[in-house]
Design brief:
- This is Glyoxalase.
- By secondary structure, this protein is mainly beta.
- It contains 1 helix and 8 strands.
- The chain has one domain: 2,3-Dihydroxybiphenyl 1,2-Dioxygenase, domain 1.
- The chain has an 8-stranded mixed beta sheet, covered by helices on one side.
- The longest helix has 10 residues.
Length: 115
């Protein structure tokens, strides 16, 4: 398997408004927000930062790695598949795996262009 880089950094927060203002103070522009206290921030050509409010959970950070397609992902036993590829509401397919140290990683494949 080969990834093509970091697609995004996924952060959860207990307070969406404060987190959004913090990102803006760091020079990130708001790409979009949702009606359920989440949104995407960008700063230059680097990975996007997606923040979602989860008021009753511990804040979490996860890297979202880009993969060329769902067929490119194969593991040799070093990772536990937590959830197989599934469609997201924003047009990608995502899979979650746990590494040998227990960290969760999201693999994201964008849909192929229709022929």
């Amino acid at each position: 398997m080969s990834t093509t880089g970091i697609a995004a950094v996924y952060l959860t927060t207990r307070n969406w408004g404060k987190a959004a203002r913090f990102m803006q103070s760091l020079g990130y522009d708001t790409d979009f927000t949702t009606d359920h206290n989440s949104g995407l921030f960008r700063n230059g050509a680097g990975p996007a930062v997606f923040i979602a409010e989860v008021p009753h959970e511990e804040p979490d950070t996860r890297l979202v790695l880009a993969v060329p397609d769902t067929e490119a992902v194969r593991f040799d036993g070093d990772a536990e598949v937590v959830s197989d590829f599934a469609e997201t509401h924003f047009g990608t397919r995502e899979m979650v795996v746990r590494d040998p140290d227990g960290r969760l990683w999201t693999l994201q494949a964008t849909p192929a262009d229709p022929a």
